[in-house]
Every structure is written in C-alpha cells, then in structure tokens.
C-alpha cells in the first residue's frame, strides 16, 4: 500500500492528475524497483522506487538526466518528481516508448553522442561534476580537478584500487601492477582533453531503441552516472561489453575531431569499469583487469 501511496504522491508532486490504471513491474531493476505507471487516460510514466534512505541516489540520477537533457543532443527520460513519499524514495520520469533500431538509427545515435561530447560542458575547463553519484552500486566521487590525469589517478582508478584492496578482492602484487598503471597515466591519457559531459555508464542495456516526439525511431539513454571528462570514456564502456553496431562507432568517429591515442585512452577507461565490476561482483573480473594492465605494459 505504501508503494501505491508513494507513487500517487509523486504524481501529485509532478502536477499529474488522473487515477492510476495499472502498475507493472519492469525487469532490469537490480538495485531499485522499476515500475511502469499507466494512468486511466493511457499516459504512462516510469517510477523508480527504493527505501527512503536511498533518496540521494535518485537525486543524483535526476541531476544527470537534467544535465543530459539540457544539451539537446541525446534523448533521455525527463525527471518529473524526485522525493521521499510515504516512506519510499521515488524518481518519477517520462517513459521511453519502445522503438526499432536500424543501422541508420544507430548511425544517428553515434552522431548525437559526438554532439553531446562536443557540447559546452560549462565546467571552466575542469573535470568532475557538481554532485557525486554512483556507478551501479559503487560510490563515484566527482570532485572537480583541473588536470584529467590527476582526476583519474585520484577519483577513478585510485579510488577503485583502494576499494578493491579494502574489500580484499585483489592481492598485493596485483595492486602493485595497477599502481604502476596509475603512476604512468600521463603516458596513456591526455592531461587536457575537451571537457565533455558523459553519460558515464553507457553499456547496451542503457541505450534503448525508442521513438522521439514525432514518432521517428531513435536511441534513448537511461540510468546515467554523469560527470565531465574525456568523451572516449563513454566509447570505452560501449566497447567493453558490446551490443553497439559498427555503424554507431563509425558515425561517432566521423563526427569527432580528436583521434589521438584512442586505444590507450579506451584501455584506461575500461580498466575503471572492470575494477568497478571487481568491487561489485568479486574476483571473477580480476583476470580482465590484469589483462588490460598488461596491455598498458604493467
């Protein structure tokens, strides 16, 4: 009952009136409960729900969605209400309607992603974000830095290695090899790449075929872990687990104007995500972590 009350309160907070016709659990909510909310007039919305003490995570996600939406480049669900209602934290958003993705649709998405990364990030040349957030269930610190190498050494790879050491997921010689990567970061990644707003967690499950306001097919992105950094961070996550066609990458490459040391940069950024998987799921990802470290000569 508290779930229904929480959703009703969020709808009221968003200025949406009309009785609820149905609530349907959606798959994919491994951290939060995800519910499709349909009103009697057939308008549908998405509600993410968790315990009230998880409200800050929803506020972080809403901030990321708003930042992405403001660039007018990629399609995202619009946050309508976020708050604690009837003892539950709720993030209420517009729903992305199912669509069909062709190679041309993916090409357009590649171009849109390049446009996102080319947009003014309004960060005074710094890297980070105006709020910390989470990558999956892992805290992601986003303290602003003027130096991209320093940002990755402290707030990305360094943070994840320290966490893995604390949890006991990596042994000492493995940690030493990863510290070697961190010590050599200036050889792999630029100190001053264009500051780009990043989705931050762009695996295929977060890029959904949908339709825009005119009914034309497009790709929408969900569940961001936004920050400002090197645009190739998003490409690194896209390539790590697959699911994106070659046409998408080709369109991105054609639209991008920075092609310096791409493979080394992507390896470093993939290492961050693999370390995060170690910290969430355990040593099953340690082999991939060490393989990437070996590619980087450590």
Query: What's the end-to-end separation, in Å?
Result: 55 Å
**How many separate structural domains?**
2
Order of helices and strands: HEEEHEEHEEHHHEEEEHHHH
CATH class of the largest domain: Alpha Beta
Q: What is the CATH topology classification name of the largest domain?
A: Aminoglycoside 3'-phosphotransferase, Chain: A, domain 2
Estimate the helix proportion, in percent. Answer: 40-55%
Structure description:
- The chain is α+β, with helices and mostly antiparallel strands and 298 residues long.
- It has two domains: 2-94, Phosphorylase Kinase, domain 1, CATH 3.30.200.20; 103-295, Aminoglycoside 3'-phosphotransferase, Chain: A, domain 2 (Alpha-Beta Complex), CATH 3.90.1200.10.
- Helices cover 44% and strands 19% of the residues.
- It has helices at residues 2-13, 55-70, 103-118, 148-167, 172-183, 185-188, 232-241, 246-255, 262-281, 286-295; strands spanning 20-25, 33-39, 44-51, 79-85, 88-94, 133-135, 138-140, 196-198, 207-211, 217-221, 227-229.
- A hairpin with a 5-residue loop joins β9 (207-211) and β10.
- α3 packs parallel to α8 and α7 packs across α9.
- The longest helix has 20 residues, at 148-167.
List keywords for this structure.
globular; Aminoglycoside 3'-phosphotransferase, Chain: A, domain 2; alpha+beta; 11 strands; two-stranded antiparallel ribbon; 298 residues; 5-stranded antiparallel β-sheet; Phosphorylase Kinase, domain 1; 2 domains
